[in-house]
Design a protein that fits this description.
The chain is an all-alpha fold and about 90 residues long. About 35% of the residues lie in helices and about 0% in strands. It has helices at about 15-20, 25-40, 45-55, 55-60. It holds the Pfam family Histone_H2A_C.
């Protein structure tokens, strides 16, 4: 049995990000997918990418560019956002 398989075990190449324990290679794409899933849409658009980047503090400080067709990130004042299960009385 001399040849290619001479008894050596195959070793799989492990990336640095996998060794560091990161979940995925492209966290922007994962966050954009979550944004599109929340809006019940099957395709990721530039708007979803913009929401993902601006929603994450680390990515927002890293990426300072404006994306084409990204739209405007909605800003809702904290006092207007109620907690879950709490109704606002007028």
């Amino acid at each position: 049995m001399s040849g290619k398989d001479s008894g050596k075990a195959k070793t799989r190449v492990v990336s640095r990000s996998r060794r560091a324990g990161l979940r995925s290679r492209w966290p922007v794409l994962e966050l954009a997918g979550n944004a599109s899933k929340d809006l019940k849409v099957k395709r990721i658009t530039p708007c979803h990418l913009q929401l993902a980047i601006r929603g994450d503090e680390e990515l927002d400080s890293l990426i300072k560019a404006t994306s084409a067709d990204g739209g405007v990130t909605p800003h809702i004042h904290k006092s207007l956002i109620g907690k879950k299960g709490q109704q606002k009385t007028v």
